[in-house]
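QA checklist item 7 of 12: single-chain prediction sanity check.
[x] sequence parsed
[x] length recorded as 633
[x] structure emitted
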Amino acid sequence: MCGIAGVFRSDASSEQSELRRMNDQLCHRGPDDSGYYRDGPVGFAHRRLSIIDLSTGQQPITNEDGSVVVIFNGEIYNYQTLREKLSTANHVFSTDTDTEVLVHAYEEYGLDFLHRLSGMFAFALWDANAERLILARDPMGIKPLYVAGSDRKTEGIAFGSELPAVLRADVPHGGLNKNGLAQYFHLGFIPAPQTAFRNIQALCPGERMIIDRDGVDKACYYTPTIPQRSPGFDAAAGELRERVRDAIERRLMADVPLGAFLSGGIDSSIVVGTMAELSDEPIKTFTVGFNETLFDESWAAREVAEYHGTDHHEMTVTSNDVRELIPEVLGQLGQPFADQSLLPSYVVARETAADVKVALSGDGADELFAGYDKYFGEYYSQYYRAVPSPLRRRVIEPAVEAMPASRESMSGEFTRKLQKFTRGGIEDTPARHTEWLRVADSSTDETINLNAADVTLSDLQAEHGNLSKIFDAERDDMSRILAVDTRYSLPNQILRKADLASMYNSLEVRVPFLDTAVSEYAMSLPTEYKINRSGRKRILKQAFEDVLPESIQTRSKQGFDMPIGEWLKGPLAAELKNLLRRLEIDVIDTDAVREIHADHANGTGEHGKFLWTVYVFAVWVERMREQGIIGSV
């Protein structure tokens, strides 16, 4: 795992000082080594976190005559198979690293080499003979890649693993992107290709970009065709187990210590149990427990660790310990990102990185197998939508909205979820999907001067429309929502959080559920194999019944939330008020936000997630101004 950055200018060369500025922003991604390359219009910078071939894997890496050069972030899990084939075709390797496979595969197969890679990656490859630069991101969007600029000549095009690196290039960022910010306030994250800046884009999962003297060509190289499968439930469970097991086994390759996150939930327990089956030594597992019972899952993780005889590491912190990390974590964001679980994820990654360099995670299984509460909401909404519309609109929904919602009590939390459920009683699938994803509700939406709901709905309508390119037949609403979440919110929220939390701590995280052999098979299965009235993740639990303690199979899903709402009533309240006083920005009505904060503080409404979104944005704006990246906006 590494950090990459670079510049392309057809009419001017990149300066070493510019590349160093960019690379300095990526030290946490690669503390072990750095490297540079300049040739004509292109300049590369690289930071290395050594995982495979520790002695000779320094980057950039070239082919035999130096005409093909690559910088790479990620892992290619089938590199040994590819290397054998390429060696047979007379390619000469000088290292044992997976990175070198890229230059020889490109020589042998041309652009088609992208279809032969199995892994997580973002890379830049320079073909000196053709004078073209190729940028690519892995099919599931596990590793990020940002690109600034469209003028390939004088101003140039810059790219990097993180926005702070791209912002240090001599390429204009174009000012704030109001469409991206609209989606941020509505969702809590900015989905690719949008970013917070008009002149910077994020490559989407499975996209590649070719830049040469003639122009810029961007295209999607990964568009799977997902057949509709209906095997018997037991047969499907057996096939799924084999695919997941193979994916986990491929992700155990490393020349450094390796472990796994263990929350005590279904997904991480399956990963740990399968790792234990595949290993002769006890697996290192890592859990952070919390003193507050509401957030603590350490007892469940401990039970799984004992069940599989792992070398278990557990650290207990308080929510106050996590709150004190807010300046440190938010201070590294290149654009606003309001998933509050970034904070405890950062703590887990920090403690894990003290012992190992690589950790496996269960990310992705919730989207593939309907694990989240919102999928139960979607499942039961079919029955709610059968209630006559006038009764819903005039009686049920006003009564539910009038009930006090709060995260402070079980009844208040039930009301909050009930309100979200009734708001999802919409016939149109993309519109209903928007309700399941949104952070802002109709009252908080009015504080954002960006038509946030319309921008997000338009995005999701396009995503649902694109499913016709993937599915070979019409699917039910649940299958469509799961597929869109796998391609939309998963890479832009969950995987972005995982990359931020882990790489801030120089830790590589691998996600076996997002092996394309697993994800494509999961998306092909019927909805009833995943969710029905009796529960969620049905086929996943069936497939791995023997590696899950019974108590883990039956426990309810627990999120990785922090008491953000309470902090914004107490320890963070004064700071939020001060931030709003200084914000002075036309994208948000700060007076209206103050009113919402007052309602939240006195218990009239529950707006913790929205207010956290505003808080993160305000902190980010102040830092961008202090660094001279943005002026008055």
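[x] summary fact logged: The longest strand covers residues 68-76.
[ ] second reviewer sign-off
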